[in-house]
Amino acid sequence: MSSDITLYTWTTGNGFKVSITLEELGLPYKTEAINISTNRQKEEWFLNINPNGRIPAILDGGQRVFESGAIMTYLVDKYDTERKISYAPGTPEHVEQTCWLMFQMSGIGPMQGQANHFRFFAGARSDYGIKRYIEETKRLYSVLESRLQESTYLAGEKFTIADIASYPWVSGAPVSLQIDLSEFPALNKWVEEIGKRPAVQKGVAVPHFWPQEDMAELFKKCRANIDAMTNSDQH
């Protein structure tokens, strides 16, 4: 299948959502790494692609698409003619697929993102912030657990973009937030099975492979930095 796609991305949960989608669809694409620690995503040229100054974004020829969920939906609407990782519009499964995609966009992404902020990057330690957002992340995982106890995948019996959306966030939580997925057996099994997919393995290595031991060491240092700070809740 021909395409003229450039993916602007970095090694984040949202970035992996799009690279996995592209790999699962077997689409050729170019990658431009946007190191978000340097604020390259705030440069004027990139704001012409995504006015919000966030990764990921794509250019498909002259068409810009930003926001990870919108990109995933765009890609399957245009290129997934065989419905490899999506259900046909108008079907009950497509409605379910959209619901779980939005669940990740409005729930897991923002809440786990806040957990990451308070656990790794905040200017002062906040026990309240850490507890609130990690507990909310785990509550959302319990929703996924309930669904996966009754369904092989989130939208039904087929792996879709609904699963791709949540997978990078959930699979990274044991290393980053030290969430024990054994508390969620159906979710844990889902993570393990998805992680075996060759396209998923390729997708999480875009724009470059980040060894798990290096990730674990970085997160350990970030947590230690936060733990050494004054608890802002006491002021």
Automatic annotation (TrEMBL):
Residue stretches making up the GST C-terminal domain = 90-218
Kindly indicate where the leader peptide sits in this chain.
none
Domain GST N-terminal, chain residue ranges per copy? 2-83
Q: Which InterPro entries match?
A: Glutathione-S-Trfase_C-like, Glutathione-S-Trfase_C_sf, Glutathione_S-Trfase, Glutathione_S-Trfase_N, GST_C, Thioredoxin-like_sf
The name under which this protein is listed is Glutathione S-transferase
Annotated PROSITE patterns: GST_CTER, GST_NTER
Q: Which family does it belong to?
A: Belongs to the GST superfamily.
| PANTHER family the UniProt entry points to | GLUTATHIONE S-TRANSFERASE GSTA, GLUTATHIONE S-TRANSFERASE-RELATED
Tell me any Pfam family this protein matches. GST_N
Gene3D superfamilies listed in its UniProt record: 1.20.1050.10, Glutaredoxin (3.40.30.10)
User: Domain of life, per the record?
Assistant: Eukaryota
